[in-house]
Amino acid sequence: MEFEQIYKTYWDRIFRLCMGFVNDYDAAQDLAQETFIIVWQKLETFRNESAIGTWIFRIASNNCLRQIEKQKRFPKSELPVHLSEEKQTSLEPQIQFLYKCIAELPETDRIIISLELEDIKQNEIAKIVGLSEANVRVKIHRIKEKLTQKFKENEQR
Amino acid sequence: MNNDNNIDFKDLWKKQSVSQPDIQDLLARVGKFKKAALRSLWISNILLCLTSAFIVFIWIYYQPQFISTKIGIVLTILAMVIYLFVYNKLLRSYKNIDATATNQEYLQKLIFIKKKQQFMQTKMMSFYFVFLTIGICLYMYEYASRMSVLGASLTYGITLLWMMFNWFYIRPKQIKKQQDKINGLIEKFEEVNHQLES
């Protein structure tokens, strides 16, 4: 697969994964770009052992985990905060709320639920994260329960 | 889906607005990234070469007579070479971390590298200082032996004072700064890794 084609096909999905992880438009944009830089560098080494989607999502989710380190190095206040807010106001509050809830989950849960919402098969998610399929299924179920609860609490308020 | 679960998260999820940047922007960033990596490699290696060349120049130009001077020179260069070698190796292992592994493997690898880094920063730093101090003291001996007693003790006194200041003040401070950062990271990565086990 050509890089340009991969970029066009996967950008939106990778961006949403990153957005679910950080819930910050600019930071997610950066993370997604970094992911594609790695994809661009590593594309030669891709050997069709796994589906390209699995491969790309592994890179993206690992990069998200890696940014935990950078987050400590560059405090969030350095990011242009008002800029991201401006972009986000156009969103429906429910979408905003969903991303906010996901970004508040434990790091690995964020990745798992983002992949699930991207319609990735559970056996693929298991291959990306490195857990058993049964384990992934249980986790997804729990996370969805948690999200549903948060949404209900939000409605009541 | 049961009745409790009637919120369509997938639908909401996909409605997030996304703007795909032009691919040319991305490729420009790739180029910049490559240049920066290359530059940092050059800077550390050029510095090393220059220092070594300078010391070799002293060796040839002043023709030291004592074996202590030569050992001193060798020790000093060795300290710097080993330090840079280890540092470069660590940096490489960090860069070459397999980005296409599963999250679990990736996290474990990150923790492993961070722990190695933690070990090296303390040990290497001490090793470097000890080698450098011994090297410089040996190196100075030939020249100090030609000075008056006062001049020699002054030379050694000032040098050792400077070394002690580094050893007792700069070194612990540097180590503490690095350790605080790295310990926090290890803790965080272990916590994330633990999420996968539960």
TrEMBL record, chain A:
Residue ranges annotated for the RNA polymerase sigma-70 region domain, each copy included? 7-73
UniProt xrefs under Pfam families: Sigma70_r2 (PF04542), Sigma70_r4_2 (PF08281)
- Where the record annotates domain RNA polymerase sigma factor 70 region 4 type, the positions are 98-147
Q: Which UniProt keywords apply?
A: DNA-binding, Sigma factor, Transcription, Transcription regulation
Q: Which SUPFAM superfamilies match?
A: Sigma2 domain of RNA polymerase sigma factors, Sigma3 and sigma4 domains of RNA polymerase sigma factors
* Top-level taxonomic group: Bacteria
The family note in this entry says: Belongs to the sigma-70 factor family. ECF subfamily.
UniProt protein name? RNA polymerase sigma factor
UniProtKB/TrEMBL annotation, chain B:
The protein's superkingdom reads Bacteria
Keywords attached to this entry: Membrane, Transmembrane, Transmembrane helix
Any keyword Membrane? yes
What is the recorded name of this protein?
Answer: Uncharacterized protein
Which regions span the lipid bilayer?
41-61, 67-86, 124-141, 147-169
